[in-house]
Specification:
The protein is an alpha/beta fold. It has one domain (about 5-270): Spore Coat Polysaccharide Biosynthesis Protein SpsA, Chain A (Alpha-Beta Complex), CATH 3.90.550.10. It is built from ten helices and 13 strands. It has a nine-stranded mixed beta sheet with strand order 5-4-1-6-11-8-12-10-9, sandwiched between helices. A two-stranded antiparallel sheet has the order 2-3. Strands 7-13 form a two-stranded antiparallel sheet. Bound molecules: 1-O-phosphono-alpha-D-glucopyranose.
């Protein structure tokens, strides 16, 4: 059973300045809900209820969001507005939240390694909240838990992207097992234009086996001088221990303003319940 899920949230969100000058980018709302809450809901639905944030300076609002606000609840008690807090209350009651800080920004691999203290020695999920995913029948992480139960190794979510966009992602090469499953044979972090091994891009959902931590300890800085999770996963892939899963669903890159707007429009059309 996988119970733990890491959320690396220490990044500065510079693409959203000045909005992110005094506010974590993960708290920016898609409609009336912070981006990070969508990711935590997806984890909870997959049964991953031990939520670990790898956080940093200026991110206190995330801790406050996943906590009770007694003063606010007292103020709105009996006003009919309490129902707006139902979703977040359910998360707070169903999940446990832990926090650790990434002191220096040395890349996603380093952020995940910083979360080791919250995970210990068991398989765990990783959600990059910037990638907002809506599954069809099941959430993307729940689908991946199903794949993990079959293969018992690390799982990465992948999506086909246009070849000219592959330089923005980790890209895999794999042996086809079925129309949705690939055994990874190679992976490259943000390949130069024209050098990608395929158009299967890694999306910000991972299930990792805990040996990844020792591998990350030994992983040298790679692309952009950062410790890359893609490089550590390649070590596991050399033993045939990484499966790429082409998920069912829709994904928005909320790390860009354009993707954020697309996600907002999608949610408004498909998920928004007007509050009277
Ligand atoms: C990270 C990973 C990359 C992956 C991407 C998905 O990159 O390093 O392999 O494809 O997330 O969003 P980032 O977008 O943080 O630069």
């Amino acid at each position: 059973m996988i119970k733990k899920c890491l959320f690396p949230v220490a990044g500065y969100g510079t693409r959203f300045l000045p909005a992110t000058k005094a506010m974590p980018k993960e708290i920016l709302p898609i409609l009336n809900k912070p981006l990070v809450q969508y990711g935590v809901e997806e984890a909870m639905q997959a049964g991953l209820t031990d939520i670990g944030f790898v956080t940093g300076r200026g991110k206190r609002a995330i801790e406050d969001h996943f906590d009770v606000s007694y003063e606010l609840e007292h103020q709105i008690h009996g006003s009919g507005k309490e129902k707006l807090l139902t979703g977040i209350r359910e998360l707070i009651e169903s999940c446990r939240f832990s926090y650790t800080r990434q002191i220096t920004m040395r890349g996603l691999g380093h952020a995940i390694l910083s979360g080791r203290t919250l995970v210990g020695d068991e398989p765990f999920g990783v959600v990059l909240a910037d990638d907002l995913c809506f599954g069809e029948d099941q959430g993307v992480l729940e689908q991946m838990v199903g794949v993990f139960k079959q293969f018992h190794c690390s799982i990465v979510a992948v999506q086909e992207v246009p070849m000219e966009e592959t330089h923005r992602y980790g890209v895999i090469e794999g042996e086809t097992l079925s129309d949705k499953l690939f055994r990874v044979t190679d992976m490259v972090e943000k390949p130069a234009q024209g050098c990608a091994p395929s158009n299967l891009a890694i999306i910000g959902r991972y299930i990792l086996t805990p040996d990844i931590f020792d591998i990350l300890e030994a992983t040298e800085a790679g692309k952009d001088g950062e410790i890359q999770i893609t490089d550590a996963l390649l070590q596991q892939a050399r033993d045939g221990s990484v499966i790429a899963y082409k998920f069912d669903g829709t994904r928005f890159d909320c790390g860009s303003v354009e993707g954020f707007v697309d996600a907002t429009n999608y949610c408004y059309q498909n998920h928004y319940v007007p509050q009277g």
